[in-house]
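Before relying on records like the one below, remember that each one covers exactly one chain. Contacts with other chains, cofactors or solvent are not represented anywhere in the record.
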Amino acid sequence: MAHLRQTKATHLGLILKIAEVGQLQKAASSMAMSQPAASRILADMEKNVGAPLFKRGPKGMEVTPLGMAFVRHARVILSELDGLDKDVQRLKNGQAGEVRIGSVTGPAVSTLMPALEAVRARSPHIDVTIEVGPSVDLVRGLDEGRFDFIFARIPATQDSRDFLVHPAQEEIVRLIIRDSHPLAGRANVRLEDLYDYDWVIQERGSPIRLAVEEAFHSAGEPTPPRIINSSSLLIVLAMLDSLDVIAPQSKEVASLLSGPILGGHLTTIDLAEKITVSPYYIIRNRFKELPQAAKDFYDEVLFRI
């Protein structure tokens, strides 16, 4: 196994490309190398490992479990090398570095935006990418090296031992409606009063959807039957603009949508019961050193929690 320490980036790139296209000839061509050279590299790697990385079949080359381990590590290693190259170029050009963050919706509004403002005031040339998505996708992205750190919940199927996990906050759910909705302006609305209305809500299994369903179950009430499933905020806004629908969102998003910045024609239901989502966390890779720009941003976020 000591020979693996001598593995070159091009060799790892070849493994990734074979796994992607399923054929050695196509992979070699895309890597600008001859098929014999690619075949020799693959044979040497399999010899060093002592087992095949791919199964050869009539439909092409299929990754073995051992090969999949190579693919996972190759993604991270090549991502690190690519990040190093970008950092060097930006630093040479007088820029401060790159930060890549993933987040569920609530903290993207409530925590990341103020932290971004503070960091940019100190480092105006910092290059920040913020991607909002479900926790499953964010944790996968962190595992693959696409993010420096994330705000997310750890899926039950994920081994958390590879991560540094810092507790953040729970999310409170608000129910958004347009200001002409029959429930607008009513005080202490109960869940039973919401049953007969149309809802637009995230897909089944999403944290906010689960929280809403749990609230109805805990109150001994049936869940509303008239539901439109959509995680698109654009679809939600379009429906709120023209229909008497109820749209559950995190408190931070609800405050933004019902505030004066977006026109002020949306409001929230004064709900008697409190609906909360399971807490999210600030998560980073335990074995990965953060670039300085990402570390500064990470420290700023922790300061604000």
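The radius of gyration is 24 Å.
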